[in-house]
Write a structure and sequence with these properties.
The chain starts with a helix and ends in a 7-residue tail after the last helix. The model is unreliable at 8-17 and 19-24 (pLDDT under 50). The strands form three sheets. Strands 4-5-12-7-10 form a five-stranded antiparallel β-sheet, with no helix packed on it. It has a five-stranded antiparallel β-sheet with strand order 9-8-11-6-13. It has a three-stranded antiparallel β-sheet with strand order 1-3-2, with no helix packed on it. It contains four helices and 13 strands. It folds into two domains: 21-182, Jelly Rolls, CATH 2.60.120.10; 186-223, no CATH class. It has 224 residues and is an alpha+beta fold. A hairpin with a 2-residue loop joins strand 2 (43-45) and strand 3 (48-50). It comes from Papaver somniferum (Opium poppy). This is Germin-like protein. Mn(2+) binds at residues 112, 114, 119, 160. Pfam families: Cupin_1.
């Protein structure tokens, strides 16, 4: 009996250890893996080719002028300047990225999700009303008004937003827990998909007349 209980404990222990191993990313086995534009003689790691470390240069880890305000063209009144692996090749496999968000007075970074990353945001200038919504069935809104120097966290995958509630421009910096967090802007995805989602589907989902859906789908949806 003791032998069988001991065997059961060993099986349970290894199952627990394996579950932790599967649930997390493996540790890096090298100092860095600069994303290579030319795949010749490169190694494919984490979705990108890695440059020979001997050929890495300081510019692979550098992004200039992140302090420069972004040009706001979006009708929602904000612009996101990204600093992920697409802009800094040396971020590949390092599991982190950043973004700068500029907001016009009363500008909005509309509801969106990052399917692969948790975000932590700090306000540099202005006043922001921010929030995120938990998953079904609670759909609970966590919201806060942030001032200069305040920090707020948006958990991975949850819909969140930021709105400038002041009369002056606002600026925030965000750090994200992966090299390429991805972004899904809810309105763009639902009403601006290519090809469009059936208006019958959306009319039933949102409990509105199909004319409302047709109107929304006819609008120009642009990335922020």
């Amino acid at each position: 009996m003791k032998s069988s209980m001991g065997s059961l404990f060993v099986v349970f222990f290894f199952a627990l250890v394996c579950s932790f191993a599967i649930a997390t990313d493996p540790g890096s086995l090298q100092d860095f893996c600069v994303a290579a534009k030319n795949p010749n003689a490169a190694v494919f790691v984490n979705g990108l080719f890695c440059k020979d470390p001997a050929l890495a240069v300081p510019e692979d880890f550098f992004l200039p002028r992140f302090n420069k305000p972004g040009v706001i063209k979006s009708p929602v009144g904000s612009v996101v300047t990204q600093a992920n692996v697409a802009q800094i090749a040396g971020l590949n496999t390092l599991g982190i990225s950043m973004a700068r968000i500029d907001y016009a007075p009363y500008g909005l970074n509309p509801p969106h999700t990052h399917p692969r990353a948790t975000e932590i945001l700090v306000v540099l200038e202005g006043t922001l009303h921010v929030g995120f919504v938990t998953s079904n069935p609670e759909n609970k809104l966590f919201t806060k008004v942030l001032h200069k120097g305040d920090v707020f966290v948006f958990p991975v995958g949850l819909i969140h937003f930021q709105a400038n509630v002041g009369k002056i421009p606002a600026v925030a910096l965000a750090a994200l827990s992966i090299q390429n967090p991805g972004v899904i802007t809810i309105a763009n995805a639902v009403f601006g998909s290519k090809a469009p989602i059936s208006d019958d589907v959306l009319a039933k989902a949102f409990q509105v007349d199909k004319k409302v859906v047709d109107y929304l789908q006819s609008q120009f949806w642009m990335d922020n």
